[in-house]
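Regression test case RT-17, inverse folding.

Input:
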């Protein structure tokens, strides 16, 4: 059973649909007991960093997500769900993130006639290939929708990168915590393979 955390930050239906397509048993919940008893946990999300952190606090989910990481329950953050794992964001000065991983969320620099937010497909390279990218070729394309990007403090956790007026840390892995800035659920066969790889991590743990 994989729990998708519902904290009113959108993007849940497409994530749920993708996991169900892969034959995965899913529960959409914000109940701490259900989240902590799941075999894996997914934090999707679109929207503003500060608003999302407030919703997590309002639903008493901050400590729950930290406990998921401490208990080494496989965890996947998607898009805003990646950003919230880190310390802070230029989008919401003064708002602290979950701080499970070290690094900062920065605004994509203007220039080079590239539109911000970035909306569209971009190719990945793998500085050190993580478990989410097993069986996926270097240069594979995935779908991004974002104005802010991760700069991780420890580049050893970065498993996928791309470029869009900056070197963007597109996916990270630390112990049982995984996260993608892009949307695997909207990234065709490559994205489904990434989600399938996460399911395999969950099944190994269960």
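Golden output:
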């Amino acid at each position: 059973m994989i729990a998708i955390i519902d904290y009113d930050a959108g993007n849940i239906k497409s994530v749920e649909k993708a996991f169900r397509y892969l034959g995965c048993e899913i529960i959409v919940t914000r109940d701490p007991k259900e989240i902590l008893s799941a075999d894996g946990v997914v934090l999707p999300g679109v929207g503003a960093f500060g608003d999302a952190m407030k919703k997590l606090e309002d639903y008493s989910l901050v400590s729950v997500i930290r406990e998921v990481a401490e208990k080494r329950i496989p965890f996947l953050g998607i898009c805003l769900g990646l950003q919230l794992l880190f310390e802070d964001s230029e989008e919401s000065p003064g708002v602290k993130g979950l701080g499970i991983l070290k690094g900062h969320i920065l605004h994509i620099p203007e220039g080079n006639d590239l539109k911000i937010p970035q909306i569209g497909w971009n190719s990945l390279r793998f500085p050190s290939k993580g478990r989410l990218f097993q069986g996926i070729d270097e240069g594979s394309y995935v779908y991004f929708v974002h104005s802010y990007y991760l700069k991780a403090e420890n580049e050893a956790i970065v498993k996928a990168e791309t470029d869009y007026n900056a070197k963007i840390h597109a996916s990270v892995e630390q112990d049982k915590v995984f996260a993608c800035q892009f949307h695997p659920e909207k990234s065709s066969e490559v994205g489904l393979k990434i989600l399938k790889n996460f399911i395999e991590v969950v099944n190994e743990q269960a």
